[in-house]
Amino acid sequence: MRARSSRFQKIVKLAETDERRFAEATGASQRQLNDQVARLGELNAYRQEYAANTNSRGFTSAAQLKDYQDFLSRLDQAVLSQQQIIHDCEQNLERHRRQWQVKRQRLESLIVLTTTSWEDIYHFLKSKGRQTIVSRTTKETDIEIQLDLDGSGKYNNHTGIGFFDHMLDHNQNVWPIDR
User: Fold this and answer.
1) Which of 3, 1, 19 is nearest to 111 (CA)?
2) Of 19, 46, 158, 167, which has the highest C-beta tally within 10 A?
3) Average pLDDT over residues 113-138
4) Are 17 and 103 in contact (CB under 8 A)?
């Protein structure tokens, strides 16, 4: 029994390292998102300040007006670009968060395997909902499904295929799961 426990401890240590690595990646993604949101705020503030200062001076020639409009247009493009960067950062953060949750769940499962307390095992099994997230990306598709077998029956189907949506809607009457 001791040899088995020692082997499990090595696996748990590896899982802890893996989980910590994904937690750090999630934290880095959150910091990157915060930085990009701050940058967008600075860009918006600069645009408002530039527009306010320029409007108070007035234009003496058509060339100055055109330069002003061109610069505001470039600022608007920069704002749109920054908003896209923020959107990408949010998606990256969510992906890292999901990966970290999977690693955390695996680690907790391994820790329970090394315990000798039936009470700990019971609490572990009782506290976990029967939930999963499965993602698959190919050249043709990008699909993600989230299932909660202990759910209340909430669902949101938008596959883009009418018949498939209909079949999923029909199954919702039979299965009280969240998806």
Assistant:
1) 19
2) 19
3) 76
4) no
What is the token pair recorded at 129?
Answer: 């909902």
* Angle, vertex CA 9, rays to CA 7 and CA 14, nearest 5: 100
| Token pair belonging to 41 | 């705020």
pTM, full prediction: 0.59
Query: Which segments of the chain are extended strands (E)?
Result: 131-137, 142-148
CA distance 8 to 2: 10
Residue 6's H or E segment, with its range, is helix 2-57
In eight-state DSSP terms, residue 153 is: S
What's the rounded Cα separation, in Å, for the pair 16 and 71? Answer: 51
Q: State yes or no: pLDDT of 133 exceeds 50.
A: yes
Q: In this model, does residue 7 exceed pLDDT 70?
A: yes
Contacts of residue 50, defined as CB under 8 A and 6 or more positions apart, other chains included, come to 71, 72, 75
Residue 66 has pLDDT above 50, yes or no: yes
CA dist 26 and 9 (Å) reads 25
User: Of 101, 89, 105, nearest to 22 (Cα)?
Assistant: 101
* Calpha distance 55→48 (Å, rounded): 11
